[in-house]
Fold this protein.
Amino acid sequence: MRPSSRDEFSTAIICALTLEAEAVEELFDEIYDRLSGYYRKQPGDDNAYINGRIGNHNVVVCCMPGMGKGNAASVASSLKISYQRINLALVVGICGGAPYPSSGGEIFLGDVIISDSVIQYDFGGQYPGGFEEKTSVKDSLGRPNKEIRALLAGLQAKNTRRDLQARMLRHLQAIQRSNPEWHWPRSADDILFEASYQHKYSSPTSSVYCCLDGKSRDVCKSALDMTCIHLGCDKNRISRHRCDAEKCIPSIHIGTVASADTVMKSGEHRDRLVKADNVIGFEMESAGVWDNASCIVIKGVCDYADSHKNEAWQAYAAATGAATAKAFLEYWIPTVREEANEVQIPLELSAVPAIEEFIEREDDLSRIWDYLQPRFPATRKVAVPLELGGIGKTQLAIHFARKHKDDFTAVFWLSGRDRSALILSLSTCFPRIIGHRMNDEAKNEEDVEQRANQVPQWLALPTEIGRSFPIKKLTQEDVIQLLLQSSGFSAQGAAQVEAEGPRLTAADIMAIVDRLDGLSLAIALAGAFMRETGTSFKEYLQLYNDQWSELQSQAKPTRHYQQGNILKTWTTTYQEIQKQDPTAATLLLLLAYFDNRDIWYELIRGGLNCSHTPPWFEAAVSNKLAFKARIKVLVDCSLVEPRQQEGSFTIHPVVQDWCFHIAASEERTVQLYELALVSVGYTVPRKDDREYAQLQQRLLPHADYVIQREKYSWLEDKVAVWRALSKLGNLYTNQGRLQEAEEMYQRALAGYEKALGPDHAKSCKLADDLASRASLSATQEMPDSMPSNPTAGQPRAVSTLQHSLPESLQKRHVFSRIFCRR
């Protein structure tokens, strides 16, 4: 009975040549479909298929468009799109054989090779001394799964091998009865030449050159197109000759197959690989298939992988290979899976590859597994890691999916960037669910739900949406490891740091680690920039501080992070916030102009004292509820993080740098800096405030931060700025930081004189107040319990303060007293 859908096919046979596919089709017990007329194909699948039955197996034959590893990889990849339940792939056809395997015995034309492993002999590196092969690729390409390896081991037994060969011979005779094309080629004997003897002209003629020098290894193109008989190959160089067809029964050999993207046509090179890696056959497809699926090579020997090739043996070799494949399938009984796993849908993450430098986060992975594991309880669960863009959420999800892919019956990767992207992702997933004819498409939500219910243990991984529990930032140790790996250094500790000299110092590493504060994307991009440009750690930190925007614009997006570099990482989120709440978007930019570690409502609200307060700011801080509503938008997008106990908020330093870039591009820098400066200045407490000392200490980092930013030439009407600067002078005076206090007083006084004139009563009064406060504040505000030797951060003695006053300020103080009495 013909299967109802593609999902009932579990075995694939891949053939490079039409001749090979025809031989396999000859041995089908039943043909179901040809060229996907009934079963159709998924979009993006360009393969040509023949569907049928061989024994108890539903088999799909894939016909490749040509030979070679690239074509094989493309065919195998497309096969997985339409036929997702394939658990056995056979590469069937013809190959070159090793006449004398290192394990002993002989291989003749028409014999069959079955692989128990595959090496890729054109994989390696070109060195000055020549090409160095990495023929230990057996470990890279791997071996078949345990189930197939067990069967191959069983076939090595003498009696089983004899039975396999008898079955192969029976199937070979059946195909030969149907068409004489598959018989032994009586027009060509089985001839093996010496390994060093090349297929080339043996006597000079006027039209050829490859025979002029007997030692030359050049071969004429015309010689390659001729048979040994027509070319006149020297019979004295024949090392083995077999001509009795009646007594020649094909043998089956199991061992290592060598695969490459070129045809092996060198007897000497062949023998070196045979000796070094116990190779028994040579072909061109299995390495490409292995990139996408574990496979078994079953091929008939049509030549000896030397230059003396003869196409006369290809049909017979294709027949023996196909006959052995059918005999092999008669032994193949796949393990019956549990009912839940009978709807297993393979994990497909080719579009989102895992990064090489991923740092294990076992705590986070364990927490996610404890919550999402499908059996206890067997109900729908949703977990959305919440963190800053670039912190590593996507890679964490990829790693979780790869680690637990066998614990779920279906794993789907969905793009949640927007509604259209999500619908597109879902549309590619639902056709993969088994149990329906391919033309029985879901018509409505009920059909979709019915089909989805057939997969009881889903794992869906939508990206770029939602929030739940936060994942942890990388530890300092992990950050250092990621930075060293991505910059081209292996994390081997202090010994290597010292060995690298000035380019790599522990102090420079820690400076970058602290500056990037555990943000995985920023660390990876920094490392990549240093590796690709030869920039030292110290130079990179200087570029980061001095030319942030230019540096980030040159950072290349990694192939593992589709959002791009730092400049682009949060742009999509920011644009969405602008659409949803423009006030919240601008408030985010303002927060960057404060110290990022502790920001609270009352601090921001001080900006209402500006001379010209922008409407968006008034809306944002009109009351505490309005402020929290805007902050919630930013918290939900992971751009701001709440500090619950302190009732304040933090912003990541790299996001802070990004905000400066956005503010500059929107020409908001001066406005935002003014708001921040006035906010901090007008929040400086009076000495009779209840939390006077505590608030001063809390304000000090913000004061330091705003005054170290670029100093702007303020307009004359910015009276609030001058008042804020004078208040900052009071703050620094009370903290004993007289140099900063003097700078603030002088800037404030210069501003007032510029705005109101030097003889204006307010300017004179300010000069008097500034000088008086500077000379008396230490006495007036010194606590009764002030110790005789004050510590850092406490007011200094009056005499010290008075001697520190600038002479110009003291003179102005005297002048203002005289002037203001008039």
In short: Residues 198-233 form one domain. The first strand starts at residue 11 and ends at 15.
